[in-house]
Write the structure tokens for this entry.
Amino acid sequence: MAKSQQTFSKIEKEKKKQKKREEKQKKKEERRANSKKGSGFDNMIAYVDENGHLTDTPPDPSKKKKIKAENIEIGIPKKEHIEEDPIKKGKVAFFNDSKGYGFITEHETQEKFFVHVNGLMQEVKEGDKVQFELEMGMKGLNAVRVKKI
């Protein structure tokens, strides 16, 4: 005769599984019973008040503002092009004659711009007041057409 394939440990494991199933079923029934006591959709809903805060009370209709759909802008508003004078004024902060480059500090913004000897119309040295125009170079804006004032 063949021995039964059921061992003591298999029987114990099966009992534990059955017990877990029963506990799970009881919890499910408890949740179902408690949910009928008033924790339905009405208790889950949230409102946003006029200040943007979440509340459980509906907003006051008298404080409601009327907004027209045409007034809503989606995206970034277009920047108005402001005509600037292309000729700027500044002072030569640094210039190296042997290497042929330097920097000019603009009077209005105190911003420094690179200048190369090829962008000069007259010879300049440190401390000279100059007028110049800006062009985009490989590494940023460069001063070009530089003249002494």
Q: What stands out?
A: The mean pLDDT is 87.
